[in-house]
Amino acid sequence: MENKLKARRGQVTQHLPWIAGGVALLVYLLTLNHWVSLLNMAQVAKISGYSWQSEVFNPVYFLVTSPLRLLPAAWTPAAVNLLSAVCAALVIGLLARAVILLPHDRTHQQRERLTSSTGSLRGPLAWLPPALAATVVGLQLSFWEHATNGTPDMVNLLLLAYVVRALMEHRVSGEDSWLSKAALAYGALMTSDWLAVGLFPVFVGAVIWLKGISFFNLQFLTRVLLGGVIGLSLYFLLPVLATFSQADPTGFWGTLKMNLGMEKSMVLMFPKKAFLLMSLTTLVPLLVLSFKWASYFGDTSRFGVLLSATLFHIAHAALLMVCVWVMLDPAFSPRLHGFGQPFLNLYLISALSVGYYSGYFLLVFRPLLTRTGRTISGSHLWHQLAIGFIGLLAVFATAALLVKNLPTILDSNRGALAEYARLTTAALPKSGYLLADDPRRAFQVKLWLTRLGREKDFVVVETWALQSLDYNRHLRRLHGDRWPFGVGGQAAMTFSVDALKLLAQAGDLFYLHPSFGVFFEYFHMEPRGMLYRLLPFSGTELLAPPLPDAVIAENEAFWKKAADEVFPKLTYVIAPREPGSKPPLRQQFLETLRLPDDPRNETRTAGALVSRSLNYWAVEIQKTGNLEKAAEHFELAHKLNPDNVVAKVNLEFNRKYRAGQRSPVVMTNSVEERFGENYRGLDQLLGANGPFDEPEWCYAQGFTFMRQGQLRQAAAAFERVHAFAPDDVASRLWLAQLNLLAQQPARTLELTRDLIEHADRFQASSTNRVDALSLAARAHLARQESEQAVALLEAAVKRAPTNQYLLANVTGVYCDNGRFTNGLASSERELRLNPNDPAALLNKGFCQIQLNDFPGAINAMTKLLTLETNNPNARLNRAIAYLRNDQLDAAKADYELFQRQVPDARYVYYGLGEIAYRQKDTNLAIQHYEAYRSNAVPDAAETKFVEQRLQELRGVKPGGP
Prior knowledge:
Blueprint: H1 2-30, H2 41-47, H3 59-65, H4 76-100, H5 108-113, H6 128-138, H7 141-148, H8 152-173, H9 177-190, H10 194-198, H11 200-211, H12 218-232, H13 237-243, H14 252-269, H15 272-279, H16 283-290, H17 302-325, H18 334-337, H19 344-364, H20 379-413, H21 416-424, E1 432-436, H22 439-452, E2 458-462, H23 469-479, H24 497-506, E3 509-511, E4 523-528, E5 531-536, H25 549-565, H26 567-574, H27 585-593, H28 601-623, H29 627-640, H30 645-658, H31 671-675, H32 682-689, H33 695-707, H34 711-724, H35 729-741, H36 745-757, H37 759-762, H38 766-782, H39 786-799, H40 804-816, H41 820-833, H42 838-850, H43 854-867, H44 872-884, H45 888-901, H46 907-918, H47 922-934, H48 941-953
Helix pairs in contact: 1-4, 1-6, 4-6, 4-7, 4-8, 4-19, 6-19, 6-20, 7-20, 8-9, 9-12, 13-14, 16-19, 17-19, 19-20, 21-22, 21-28, 26-28, 28-29, 29-30, 33-34, 34-35, 35-36, 35-38, 36-38, 38-39, 38-40, 40-41, 40-42, 41-42, 42-43, 42-44, 43-44, 44-45, 44-46, 45-46, 46-47, 47-48
């Protein structure tokens, strides 16, 4: 009967790896993510054929997933995640088998109680250590995430698990074939995992530890090296495929260097302190269990042996506890110190140690028979206590891991990103072009369209990649003539606004999110749910027209439905706990153990993506004057993303504005000072959170857009400042200037009139008043009202004849608008006040050139060059005056000096060409004219004149061949 019982126990242990793997597979299937995640979005894009860039990294994963590339793209996410679940179950099974084979003859007390010749743990509870090891790693959060979301990391971990199992199999059987297999697997692993490269000395040390002196047998080394070389040959798989790739052709050597370079940089640049910290729960416990220890150290007395044994028990207990504790991801865990790397391999090593150290206590406290056939007094009690300790540890670890990680896994894998994709495509038209700056948005929508069977109706475009010819060719292959770019053998592709206009003629354009940039100088957005139709500006239109009532109603209905049906699922996870409220039991448990709660990135990312769009819509509603409804949207946008600082600022201002609180527009902080170092500039802040609708930051938006030359977007921002703070002088002046540039002089006059007539009301400075006057005069001149402009300027000069800032602006207005006689008179007024004013001298000389007073211009520029020897504008103007006055040698000298100062100025060649032409130097004239033409503006009058001169110099008759 006893033999039968032992046989049954042996069968349980023998089948335990399969049982553990089967249970793990069931758990992962029940919690499997059926959509893409942040972990595997890039991999799913490549496998589904939607990525345009060549495969460079992870050749093992590429090989394993090759069959999945034959599946329909709509099946790819589930198939990839299912593959990862199977790999994870196999890892669990291999780990359980490796733990069963671990040696338990390390200490004297273990050796006394062993019943197996192989040194492996035997007995009725031999199943518990492998089961505990499999449980703690299988329920660890990073492992669980990668088990339910297909990533290369789980495939790589399967290779490592096989290597560990093979090493243990060799320890028991002594067959060298296991080491050859281990070398093959580890070589393949090194091609895809940089940490395996860094831990290669550990692998070699393990093989030497197992083989001993026989490691240096030539025949054995040859077999092991051959296995390793075969595994390492996978380094060449992707480079060979890249040689024949039509997408992003990096080439063989380029692909190989990129992979090797990435692994090298990761190994060398990863913080050594962080790795040493993580090694305390991985390599150190592994190192301790690798050595056989003596029964005592120096002191051979009974007390000395007992003391040594007690210290060993304490050390082993500490290592066991820390290896179990790290699975709960405390502050020192690889998950929190991995800098974005999952480090599943380190968790696997910790789990292996959990299996060994738990088995240690089940063995060393097992009752030992004395020579008289009796057991030592109290040994049964210690044995029961050891069993109870390991059993309680297993129950606690399992319960703690489930309490901590199961809600996170369920929230992450329940499809928050799929919900985002569904919302984005809820208001799809029949067909069109869908553009996005964010590749995550573009890919999710593309995949969702595939699920709907509408992938052929739309061209999904990642705008960040449009400058790449390879990307344009990729779109051409996918969509044929619907994407008219990427054809031919150009070395580069510049996707311009003209190209976007061409697309607009072929179909409707939509953005997948609110955005800003050069495209929005020519198109404005009309929201359709979470899609944004691009409509062209008409003519000189500066601001987008107000949204039609029907569009507002349609969007309000969309957001109300989303708020009722979708947002509660997101905000339940995202929204922070109310201050002072009692935390739920799970949170209390984590706080008691001082364990961090996982941020649940999938749900938070979906919330952040929706929050940006909702903040934009709240701004649009606020523009209509419906402040209460805008406040509701701002508040919900902030709930969906508590880190949306723009929505928070907008909400706070909305509340103050509704309460009648008004304050001056004052910029007190930079983006970094106000919102922290997470945002490097206003562009990044707006790109993550959506637009501001608060005077201070709208002004910052407008100023940023102005510097970037995006005048329509700047005008829209300053218009919002003006709407909230009509007495703000700076925004009013910027808005007046932008309207003038947009050929809307009537609006400029409207904005400057009050500033000129009621300057005291605005508390405008003298500089502001002059700026307003200058803009008003320019607006009158733009409206062909020259008499009003001159009268306005001269009246101001009469009131303040010594105001040099006023005089300089008056001169500038006259010169910029071709009134050179007035400009000359104004510059002379300036010079009477300050004879050495450089700007006045420059303007005077310029006006004299235009009025054909070349000697006067030469004198003015000569005086200026006496004051400022290296003034390039004075040098150029004097060269022009010399040329027009037929002083060719002096003109040539000035042109050549100017060319040394400004080497890229093409108009120098025009002047030098004219000089050579007049001096009858035909070859030199042709040379200079050709240099001018190479960078000239096509169809400009001066360019046409140069063309005629070249024909004349070459003896070509007008209209001739």
